[in-house]
Each structure stands twice: as structure tokens, then as C-alpha cells.
Amino acid sequence: MSNHTCNHCHHCNTKESETREKLNKKDIILYIVSIIIFVLTFIPILENYKILGYLLVIILSGYELIIEGIKNIFKLNFEEDTLMTIAVIAAFCLGEFPESCMVVLLFRLGEFLEEKAVEKSNKSIKNIVEIKAKTANIIDEKENIKVVNVEEVKIGEKIIIKPGEIVPLDCKILKGTANLDMSSLTGESMPVAVKENEEILSGSINLNRKFNMRSTKRL
């Protein structure tokens, strides 16, 4: 039953992701078409079609903004969409057609950039989750090394990190020094030198020599 539920959720998430991607592509295509039409309005030979062109720009690139804004006006909910809608309609009614188009185009551009930034941020978070270690080399009371599931490691247990291994848990170095790759956590491209008594984050990668540490958090 649980496996069936997980498969169902995975299928729903995949379908939702595909739908969102299709919607984004549609919005981008409409936005590009809007820009092309806006540029065409500056051609003298199309002078008689300028107002129609401006109207198409606003409808194609800002239909979601306008619809949401109008709904909010009736609800007396003056959020960002509402204010932008009022600004666009007011500019158009006053004959400031290019300005009304620019408001919509710049607003949509800002939304696209924001979506891209969120997408990049989510991808970075996903990458951090994926690099988590699954096992840890704990040192028992007899100084023997035992490989255990990282979820079994308790706070205060001694762990040895070998070269090339991922730090499985937040910890404090007990003995030794090393250089760590923390680019996936901090964005820092250069190796970070760590020494005794320093605290380091899980997900860091040991680049050169082994060191002992004591876990300060559980998974």
C-alpha cells in the first residue's frame, strides 16, 4: 500500500512538473511574440495598426496579470498584481500606449528572472541533499573502525573521515587537519583548510588526508 502511494505521488509530481514546464514554454513564446509585435509598432508603414499592436502586446504578455488584477480590484485586495493592472489600464486610457506595454513587458521579465532564480536555488538544494553520505566510519571504545548507517550515529560519537569521503554529519575536528571542498554548501570554489577544534558541516568533501571528528548533530 505504501509503495503504491509513493509511486502514485511520484507520478503526480512528474505530471505536475511536465505541466508546469509546458506552461512556462507557452508563456515564454507569448512573451517573445509580444516583444516582436511591440517592435513592429515603431515601423511607420504600420502606423494605422499601432493601437491594435499595443493591445495585443498587453493581452499576450499580461493576460494573467490583468485577470488576477481585476479579480483583486473587485475584492478590494490591492496587491502587486492589482497595482500593476491599474497602472497599465490607466496608461492605456490616457493614450500612453508604449508606456503601458513597457510596464507589462518589464513586469513579466521580472517574473521570468525570479522563476529562474527560484529554480536554480531549488536545484542547488536538491544537489546538497543528494551528496549526503549514507554511511559513517565510527571509532568504538577499543579504537576499532566500524561502518554504520549514518542515521545510527549518535551525538558525541567519534568518526574518522578518509580522503575523498563526504563528511556525514555536522561535527567538530578532534585530531588532524585537512582541506575540504565546500563548494556545494557555500559556493566557495577554493578548498577550505580546517584544523583541530573547528566545526564543519555535513556534505563537505575531504580532499587530502584523514582526520578524526566528533559528531555534534544527528541526521
Largest sheet: 6 strands, antiparallel
Number of helices: 5
Low-confidence stretches: 1-16
The domain tally reads 2
Termini Cα gap: 27 Å
The percent range for strand residues is 15-25%
Over all CA atoms, what is the radius of gyration?
Answer: 28 Å
Q: In which order are the strands of the major sheet placed?
A: 2-1-3-9-4-7
Global outline? elongated
**Helix fraction by DSSP (H/I, runs of at least 4):** 40-55%
Structural class: alpha+beta
Q: Element order, helices and strands?
A: HHHHEEEEEHEEEE
The total of beta strands comes to 9
Average pLDDT number: 82
Description:
This protein is α+β, with helices and mostly antiparallel strands. The chain has 2 domains: 2-130, no CATH class; 135-215, Distorted Sandwich (Calcium-transporting ATPase, cytoplasmic transduction domain A). Helix content is 53%, strand content 16%. The chain has 5 helices and 9 strands. The protein has helices at residues 2-40, 50-74, 80-93, 97-130, 183-186, and strands at 135-139, 145-149, 158-161, 171-175, 178-181, 192-194, 199-200, 205-206, 211-215. A 6-stranded antiparallel β-sheet has the order 2-1-3-9-4-7, with no helix packed on it. Strands 6-5-8 form a 3-stranded antiparallel β-sheet, with no helix packed on it. Helix 1 packs across helix 2 and helix 2 (50-74) packs across helix 4 (97-130). It is elongated and about 90 Å long. The two termini are 27 Å apart. The model is unreliable at 1-16 (pLDDT under 50).
